[in-house]
């Protein structure tokens, strides 16, 4: 057993595992605020479901020592026979523990179907999605992994190559996403629906975790701590950075803005595109592949408006197109001087044989994943249901989890020094026989929250409520999301409501005006002595 290789594979397994919660943060930050928990749950649940299916049947179907070139047998069911032999042979004279290989491959099986949830965001029922995960992890992924990553696999024997999952992971997940989209349909109101991301900083954190984890995703696939692993790691980083720059350039030329969402999308596109090539090409080729990826995937985002499919977070444009593009480009850039186990591509003197093998592999895997995923999704849809009904799509967190992702508003203040708090005023407001009270409310646009509170309490307000609201202003401003310009005429404001008596009403209104209450937004509502309106 090689201790360094074993340690490296185990570290890479942890890195790939870390990508799944990173994906949850990445997708979670880009969905509407009322659907963030649902999206994260859809990404996290594969950690439970596919861990079990992989241990029971997934591993043996994919990497059984028995079986044929299409599907494995059950000689390693529940990993019972995986310790015989005890080691997994990497190359002649080099072995690692079999369970290290099992764990590393498990993490790929987990994240693959999680990728497609970005396409179906805002529509999936949790129970139906869970059943689909079981079906995909047994019927689709193990077979594709065997075809390309097992020495007996028919695509391996044909001569197709896939270093870390451009076909096995990204193309199969993208094909499954297309199939599920055909079954669940579009979101309610799409394409008129214009939702905004709830937390772009959260998206950036998730993207950073994905980029970090991708080093284990790509550099660990040789199962050795050697020069090829270092080359794969460098290629991964170079392609991600290059794709980020080309995406931003295209975004700038087409929409006039270079955005954070564009930078992150470009990086992920480059990482997905270099995945099938990482251990087979040199650094210069990785740079070119990244530049191509950023351009191709950015333009692919517009396909959903041409073909009218509702890919909410552009999984098809980034992961599917990226994985397919990288697998195809491998036929041009593969270099046996970088990795002796690789065939040479068109540009390195190998002719078109590898390019043809790559094309066959892409077509076969995409068709297989699409057909089986469509059948599974259709059966689930007709039985337990896969799509949430229209009205429920607006608040999936409350419907499916009974809670919201953000319990605290963005309004923060320091404790008052006025000697009086809102609780004291509220008690006074509901005392029968007390002075007649009114509610005075107004829309303000101020950051001086502490000063507003203290001034209103000093002016005689009995209680205060401050809420965030969105108001129509008539002033048009633009937002850009993945090169799509959205024209908005609503803006964020604060609504202040205060309970006051007749004596202090004029002073409270004066305070509101001093703090920028918008004309026409000041209203007065009577309160009955028992606190009702």
UniProtKB/TrEMBL annotation:
Alphabetically, the GO molecular function entries are:
ammonium channel activity
Sorted alphabetically, the Gene Ontology cellular component annotations on this record are: plasma membrane
* Ammonium transporter AmtB-like domain span: 7-406
* Entry membrane topology: Multi-pass membrane protein
The UniProt keywords, alphabetically, are: Ammonia transport, Membrane, Transmembrane, Transmembrane helix, Transport
Which domain of life, per UniProt?
Answer: Bacteria
Mark the transmembrane ranges: 6-31, 43-62, 96-119, 126-144, 164-185, 197-216, 228-250, 257-274, 280-303, 315-334, 354-380
Biased composition (Polar residues) is annotated at 407-418
Where is this chain primarily localised? membrane
Q: Where is this region: Disordered?
A: 407-431
In which compartments does the protein localize? Cell membrane; Membrane
PANTHER family found in the cross-reference section: AMMONIUM TRANSPORTER MEP2 (PTHR43029)
* Family under the similarity heading: Belongs to the ammonia transporter channel (TC 1.A.11.2) family.
- Recorded protein name is Ammonium transporter
Q: Species name for this entry?
A: Arthrobacter caoxuetaonis
Q: What is the lineage of its organism?
A: Bacteria, Bacillati, Actinomycetota, Actinomycetes, Micrococcales
């Amino acid at each position: 057993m090689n201790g360094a290789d074993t340690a490296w594979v185990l570290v890479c397994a942890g890195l790939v595992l870390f990508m799944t919660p990173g994906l949850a943060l990445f997708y979670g930050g880009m969905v509407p605020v009322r659907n963030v928990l649902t999206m994260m749950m859809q990404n996290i649940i594969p950690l439970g479901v596919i861990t079990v299916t992989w241990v029971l049947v997934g591993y043996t179907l994919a990497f059984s020592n028995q079986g044929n070139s299409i599907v494995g047998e059950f000689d390693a069911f529940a990993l019972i026979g995986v310790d015989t032999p005890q080691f997994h042979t990497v190359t002649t004279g080099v072995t690692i523990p079999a369970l290290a290989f099992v764990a590393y491959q498990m993490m790929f099986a987990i994240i693959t179907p999680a990728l497609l949830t970005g396409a179906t965001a805002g529509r999936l029922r949790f129970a139906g999605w869970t059943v689909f995960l079981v079906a995909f992890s047994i019927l689709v992924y193990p077979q594709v992994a065997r075809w390309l990553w097992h020495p007996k696999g028919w695509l391996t024997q044909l001569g197709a190559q896939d270093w870390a999952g451009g076909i096995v992971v990204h193309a199969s997940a993208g094909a499954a996403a297309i199939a599920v989209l055909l079954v669940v349909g579009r979101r309610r109101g799409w394409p008129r629906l214009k939702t905004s991301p709830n937390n772009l900083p959260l998206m950036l954190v998730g993207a950073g975790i994905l980029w970090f984890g991708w080093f284990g995703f790509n550099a660990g696939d040789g199962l050795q701590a050697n020069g090829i692993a270092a080359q794969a790691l460098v290629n991964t980083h170079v392609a991600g950075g290059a794709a980020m720059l080309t995406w931003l350039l295209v975004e700038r030329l087409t929409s006039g803005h270079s955005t954070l969402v564009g930078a992150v999308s470009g990086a992920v596109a480059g990482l997905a595109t270099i995945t099938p090539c990482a251990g087979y090409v040199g650094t210069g080729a990785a740079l070119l592949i990244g530049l191509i990826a950023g351009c191709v995937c950015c333009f692919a985002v517009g396909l959903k408006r041409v073909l009218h499919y509702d890919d909410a977070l552009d999984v098809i444009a980034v992961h599917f197109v990226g994985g397919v593009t990288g697998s195809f480009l491998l036929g041009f850039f593969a270099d046996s001087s970088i990795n002796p186990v690789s065939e040479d591509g068109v540009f390195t003197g190998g002719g078109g044989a590898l390019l043809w093998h790559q094309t066959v592999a892409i077509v076969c895997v995409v068709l297989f994943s699409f057909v089986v995923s469509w059948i599974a999704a259709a059966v689930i849809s007709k039985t337990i249901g896969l799509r949430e009904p229209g009205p429920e799509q607006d608040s999936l967190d409350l419907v499916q989890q009974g809670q919201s992702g953000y319990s605290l508003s963005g309004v923060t203040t320091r404790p008052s020094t006025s000697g009086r708090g809102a609780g004291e005023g509220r008690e006074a407001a509901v005392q029968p026989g007390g002075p007649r009270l009114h509610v005075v409310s107004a829309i303000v646009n101020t950051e001086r929250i502490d000063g507003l509170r203290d001034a209103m309490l000093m002016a005689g307000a009995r209680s205060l409520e401050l809420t965030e609201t969105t108001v129509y202003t008539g002033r048009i401003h633009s937002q850009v999301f993945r090169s799509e310009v959205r024209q908005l005429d609503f803006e964020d404001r604060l609504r202040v409501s205060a309970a006051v008596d007749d004596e202090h009403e004029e002073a409270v209104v004066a305070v509101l005006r001093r703090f920028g209450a918008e004309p026409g937004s000041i209203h007065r509502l009577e309160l009955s002595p028992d606190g009702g309106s």
